[in-house]
């Protein structure tokens, strides 16, 4: 009933910027939160940034000062603005949302991921 579609990844150089988008569609009533995770090869999945239903944002210490998260509520879209990219940021980035769907069920949904590669 709910789909998440990430976009905006790509190959960039050190110091470049990217903006990732995650568009949610389906029978959505409300969001508890929307979150960006990432997973590098051979590494555990890592929480990168989160925005809550009340608009509170949190970012991981590793990306503070470089990344920010924002929402476009009218379009059910969350963005991850990534600046000053480093090779350590290379990973597959996944969008996650805790959603109350219109039929009345809470669910934890994931997108398919978008690859970000920062060359060194």
Describe it.
The chain has 120 residues and is mostly beta strands. Helix content is 0%, strand content 62%. It is built from no helices and 11 strands. It has strands at residues 2-7, 10-13, 18-26, 28-39, 46-52, 57-59, 67-72, 77-82, 91-101, 106-110, 114-119. Strands 2, 4, 5, 6, 9, 10 and 11 form a 7-stranded mixed beta sheet that branches. It is elongated and about 50 Å long.
SSE ordering? EEEEEEEEEEE
Radius of gyration: 14 Å
How far is it from the N-terminal to the C-terminal residue, by CA? Answer: 41 Å
Which consecutive residue ranges, at least 5 long each, have pLDDT under 50?
none
> Globular, elongated, flat, extended or rod-shaped: what is the shape?
elongated
- Note the main sheet: 7 strands, mixed
Helix content: under 10%
Count of individual helical segments? 0
The amount of beta strand, in percent, is over 45%
Mean pLDDT, to the nearest integer, reads 94
Task: Write the topology of this structure.
Layout: E1 2-7, E2 10-13, E3 18-26, E4 28-39, E5 46-52, E6 57-59, E7 67-72, E8 77-82, E9 91-101, E10 106-110, E11 114-119
Parallel strand pairs: 2-11
Antiparallel strand pairs: 1-3, 3-8, 4-5, 4-9, 5-6, 7-8, 9-10, 9-11
Features:
four-stranded antiparallel sheet, 120 residues, mainly beta, seven-stranded mixed sheet, 62% strand
């Amino acid at each position: 009933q709910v789909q998440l579609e990430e976009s905006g990844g790509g190959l960039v150089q050190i110091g470049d910027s990217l903006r990732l988008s995650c568009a949610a569609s389906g029978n959505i009533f409300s969001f508890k939160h929307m979150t960006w995770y990432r997973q590098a090869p051979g590494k555990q999945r890592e929480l990168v940034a989160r925005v809550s239903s009340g608009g509170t944002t949190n970012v991981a210490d590793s990306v503070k000062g470089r990344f920010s998260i924002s929402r476009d509520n009218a379009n059910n879209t969350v963005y991850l603005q990534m600046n000053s990219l480093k090779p350590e940021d290379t990973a597959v980035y996944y969008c996650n949302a805790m959603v109350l769907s219109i039929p009345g069920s809470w669910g934890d949904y994931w997108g398919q991921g978008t690859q970000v590669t920062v060359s060194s």
